[in-house]
Amino acid sequence: MRDGQGGWPLDDRGAAYGDGLFETVLLRDGSPLLWDEHLARLVRGCHALGIPMPAERELAAPLAEAGPGLVVLKLILTRGSGGRGYRPPASPEPRLRWQLATFVPAENRWREGVRVRHCRLRLGIQPALAGLKHLNRLENVLARSEWDDEGVAEGLLCDSDGRLVEATAMNLFWQRDGRLETPRLDRCGVAGTLREALRERLSIAEVEAGPEALIAAEAVWLGNSVQGIWPVVRLDDADGVERQRWSLAPLHRGFQAEAHRLLGYPLPDPT
């Protein structure tokens, strides 16, 4: 693991208040995957928070140090230091840090599918931050602490009104009545870069739906730009009681293949 540009001063607003953004980018032999989507989301985040956007050459500088194979680049951009309490500085001087780490995807989850569960925690509704990958991720931390069963790969999150939003670290997709769907993210949640790329290539409807939509689904998937797509084969409630089960089928593999082409991952064999 390699870190760029040292640590954080104690008065950094990202460390003190979560006042910043981050991107987690998969690199293959030094080349970033879905780079345009990552930059576009970072631009949206900078605009929403009022943080100056770094030059692309600054953001791309770590790529030369990545080396061969699969590597994950984590970029962290904060507002920097300054201001008084919560009041931000009038002319922020952003601070950019980065980290490189070798990566091995969980291929067994591609092949075999995963078991997931509902979380008790509910995401707060805040449209001003919806879709952004900001540094305030305590809700995700608390949700992930709800289970320690290694057989459970992810937890699903609803907002405070009971609408499906996402998993703790992945976006959620399903097919219902022959139509691909994903939760609408205009109230909370992270608009993942793989999600955005797939929506550009496939007809995926953004919907408002509760957990009952998954019970009616023909197939369910989780995905992000690092892990790829995991088919869901079992869904539990927050107490670990099974609610639904799916058998892997060509339907699961077709959607997975679309995502894996974007990431350079092996295409799954039809089931």
UniProtKB/TrEMBL annotation:
Named cofactor requirement(s): pyridoxal 5'-phosphate
MF annotations from Gene Ontology: 4-amino-4-deoxychorismate lyase activity
Pfam families in the record: Aminotran_4
UniProt-listed Enzyme Commission number(s): 4.1.3.38
Catalytic activity of the protein: 4-amino-4-deoxychorismate = 4-aminobenzoate + pyruvate + H(+)
Record Gene3D superfamilies: 3.30.470.10, D-amino Acid Aminotransferase, subunit A, domain 2
Stretches of the chain forming a coiled coil according to its record: none
The keyword Ion transport is assigned to this record: no
InterPro entries, per database record: Aminodeoxychorismate_lyase_IV, Aminotrans_IV, Aminotransferase-like, BCAT-like_C, BCAT-like_N, Class-IV_PLP-Dep_Aminotrnsfr
UniProt entry keywords in alphabetical sequence: Folate biosynthesis, Lyase, Pyridoxal phosphate
Pathway of action: Cofactor biosynthesis; tetrahydrofolate biosynthesis; 4-aminobenzoate from chorismate: step 2/2
Enzyme class: lyase
Description of how the protein assembles with itself and partners: Homodimer.
NCBIfam families: pabC_Proteo
Entry's family note: Belongs to the class-IV pyridoxal-phosphate-dependent aminotransferase family.
Protein name: Aminodeoxychorismate lyase
Species for this entry: Halomonas alkalicola
Higher taxonomy: Bacteria, Pseudomonadati, Pseudomonadota, Gammaproteobacteria, Oceanospirillales
Gene: pabC
